[in-house]
Amino acid sequence: VVESTVAVFLFLYSYAVSSKIEPFYKGGKVQVGDDQEDITSFALSCDDEVQKSSRALLLKQWDWRQANCTRSWRAIHTVPVASMTFDSTSTLLATGGCDGTIKLWDVVKQYCTHNLKGSSGVVHLVQFHPNTDLLQLFSSSLDCGIRIWDLRSSQCVCVLQSHYSAVTSLSFSPDGNAMVSSGRDKICTVWDLKTRKAKRTVPVYEAVEGVVILPGSTDLAEIGVKSKDLHFITAGSKGVLRVWEASTARCVYTQTLPSTLPSASEEDENDNPRSLTYLFHLPASARLATVTAEHNILLYQLPALTTQQQFVGYSDEVLDVKFLGKGDSHIVVATNSCQLKVFELLTNSCQILYGHTDTVLTLDVFKKGSLFASCAKDRSVRVWHMDSDSGQVRCVAQGSGHTNAVGSISCSRMKASFVATGSQDCTVKVWDLPADCSAEGGIHQLTARATEKAHDKDVNSVAVSPNDKLLASGSQDRTAKLWSLTGEGTVSLLGVFRGHRRGVWAVCFSPVDQVLATTSADGTAKLWSLQDFSCLKTFEGHDASVLKVIFVSRGTQLLTSGSDGLVKLWTIKTNECVKTLDAHQDKVWGLHASRKDDKMVTGSADSNITVWSVSSIRQQELSNLLHGKKYLKALGLAISLDQPHTVLTVIKVIQKFPSFFLLFSWIHSESLLRYCVVWNANARNCLNAQAVLQVLLTHLPPEELLQYQGARSHLEGLIPYTERHMQRIGRLLQASMFLNYMCPAAGPAL
After folding, report:
1. 37 pLDDT exceeds 50?
2. In the record, which residues are listed under signal peptide (predicted)?
3. pLDDT given at position 31
4. Which of 53, 160, 188, 721 is the least crowded, having the fewest Cβ atoms under 10 Å away?
């Protein structure tokens, strides 16, 4: 009874959302926006205090820091507003409408001051001259001209004609006497605003979406600026930033693309996913911001244009997600894309990894967390390495050999020595990694050491056992299979797990027991014996396909995720679902637990990534148990939290109980053995370590102990300190015998 009570409290009972990575940008202008309904235009004032947004025929004024709408009013435009901007004083707001009119608003007194007519069609660009004394507004519409409006007379004083396609952006020189305009006609025009004439037309050979005049007061030699002449930077369909010298119309600098990313050809420029759709300057921090067609926002630091931060606005369907890096500080995500995304959890800043040429389907991470592998529809497998200092990730190895999409991958568990893959070509392959895989240098080419026709249909999942000797595979043919990896250059079949009524989606080995977990499209998860391949338990509760399964709580519980958007936590011993998390609105493809078992991450077809924490909940529970002197429950929880010091504190108390040996749950004997090695090295704690060891050695057969991971090294580490403690106790015993001899003789004298 005591043992059962303790075991129950070893389990996790709840997960709480720690953080989320959600889509926040799907295209269009970039500043700051917040509205649940469709926004047609918005603008952020220069004092960074208020935001105006236009939804249909309504203008709203927001205090965005407090997320409060402070005022709303009718826009007067008869059709939606297409563009808007503030002047440098943040007191005037200009709105350009789809009806060809421009209206100016006094933000302080809150009324319309001007109604400017004469533009043809949608006014998609409005911008104030930076010199507020001039009271000039620039605009552009469908006629591709740039209109200059005198706000004193409310008249258009000039139309600048140069472009033959939509004008996309304007940038003014610091003195306000020059301006550069960009367009999708693949030219930029340098204007003299005093004479209102074009000084030079610069062919840039790409559709340009953004242009910024570089500050003349900064040393920008690193990006080709060698003179004091006017220089500007462009962003467009080629997907790179380029610096141009206005006086010579010469490109003096071109941003270097990642080595794995091919340049866009003339034919595919229009469909280039890396094409830049927006560019703006952040003068206060000397940075540039760009937006890509893939909805990624990148911040570059001048003067070298080094990437400072990158944010992914929209990830599409999340197919897999894994913890990565030291302390699980990052996650790597496979989306419905040929790129991988590595997020830093603290900042949500993202690296985008290029290499695969088709959709990446799944991922796996090696034990130390700095090396991971990916596979894709391009029939290839790649291995990536994260630098522990810089956090930068690079591809270190790649291999190809499958004849169809590679849909599953598993890394070796003990050390980074191989990866196993499963494919829609019905085969599994084992790929050896070079010993110096993570060293600096080129990309190693991988060759499969073993290939096996494993199933009759697609291989949906593969898993390597904790000791690297076994491989499990699950297939659309409704079976899972167990393979031996000990043969030289071969994979040999050991047995078949039969029982699922539909295809098997996932397989996973227990970290502590000789069992395998599987999930299926039949809505169940099953637990199988590796000895006789029989089904031990069936877990039913999902309303649709169960897509992923992992072991948590030191192998005592299962987490499953399904097409129903749910994540369920199961207790293996009782076959009970103890928690259902309404995690997502669509299929949960990604499910992974951290190495410390204190958090998990899920990724879904609803494009959301959620990090779940159990640490804070369980720490509070442990504190309450200790305060309430419920030591038996606290012992189990402290072991599951992997807190040796707390476990030792509890053991010092319960060691006084008569039935001390009944207080252990044997499923955690491996952890206790590991703790004893640490405790035994300290003379103050050695008696407690020896007491626990006595219980373990008395009640567990030697062959079972030796199956624990690292058991031999743990036992070898115990021997020298135990011998030292025995010698110390022997000397103490001799000294105490001398005292017994001396005390009777000393008694009468005393």
Report:
1. no
2. 1-18
3. 55
4. 721
Q: If you ran DSSP here, which 8-state letter would residue 433 be given?
A: P
Query: Is the separation of the CB atoms in 61 and 93 below 8 Å?
Result: no
Half-sphere exposure of 183 (CA within 13 A, CB side): 23
- Could you list the beta-strand ranges (E) of 405-533: 406-411, 418-423, 427-432, 444-445, 448-453, 459-464, 470-475, 479-484, 492-498, 504-509, 515-520, 524-529
- Residue in this structure with the two tokens 């025995």, named with its chain if needed: 726
pTM (2 decimals)? 0.70
CB 211 within 8 A of CB 233: yes
Cβ atoms of 667 and 554 closer than 8 Å: yes
Q: What is the largest CA-CA distance in the chain?
A: 124
Coil, strand or helix at 730: helix
pLDDT tens for 698-722 read: 888 888 878 777 788 888 888 888 8
- Tokens for 617, please give them: 């909940």
Which amino acid, residue 632? L
Decide: 415 and 367 in contact? Cβ < 8 Å: yes
pLDDT at residue 356 is higher than 60: yes
What's the burial of 734, exposed, middle or buried (CB within 10 Å: 0-12/13-18/19+)?
exposed
Strand order across the beta sheet in which 41-44 lies:
41-44, 51-55, 58-63, 68-74
Q: Would you call 338 helix, strand, or coil by DSSP?
A: coil
Whole-number Å distance between alpha carbons of 356 and 374: 9
Burial status of residue 65 (CB atoms within 10 A of its CB: 0-12, 13-18, 19 or more): exposed
Q: Which of 45-59, 83-97, 190-204, 629-643 has the highest mean pLDDT?
A: 190-204
Most confident of 104-108, 144-148, 309-313: 144-148
8-state DSSP, 662: G
Class of domain 318-613: mainly beta
Q: What is the DSSP string of 571-599?
A: ETTTTEEEEEE---SS-EEEEEE-TTSSE
b/e sequence 32-43, b meaning 16+ C-beta within 10 Å: ebeeeeebbbbb
The pLDDT assigned to 745 comes to 53
Superfamily of domain 164-259+269-314: YVTN repeat-like/Quinoprotein amine dehydrogenase (2.130.10.10)
Residue 215 and residue 230 in contact, taking contact as beta carbons nearer than 8 Å: no
User: Positive or negative, the Cα torsion across 395, 399, 404, 406?
Assistant: negative
Give 127-194 as a DSSP string: EE-S-GGG-EEEEE-TT--EEEEETTTTEEEEEE---SS-EEEEEE-TTSSEEEEEETTSEEEEEETT
Lowest mean pLDDT among 29-38, 343-352, 486-495: 29-38
How many Cα atoms within 13 Å fall on the side-chain side of residue 482? 23
Give the pLDDT confidence score for residue 749 in this predicted structure: 45
CA distance 512 to 203: 66
520-559 pLDDT, tens digit each: 999 999 999 999 999 999 999 999 999 999 999 889 899 9
Q: Which of 690, 698, 703, 692 is nearest to 668 (CA)?
A: 692
Averaged pLDDT of the chain: 85
Give the 3-state DSSP-derived string for 209-236, with helices as H, strands as E and coil as C.
EEEEECCCCCCCHHHCCCCCCCEEEEEE
**Tokens 């990158």 belong to residue:** 310
The sheet with strand 418-423 has its strands ordered as: 406-411, 418-423, 427-432, 448-453
- Cα dihedral: 680, 681, 684, 685 (round 10): -30
Which tokens is 662 given? 């009944």
Residue in 131, 141, 139 with CA at minimum distance from that of residue 104: 139
Residues of the chain with CATH 2.130.10.10: 33-161, 164-259+269-314, 318-613
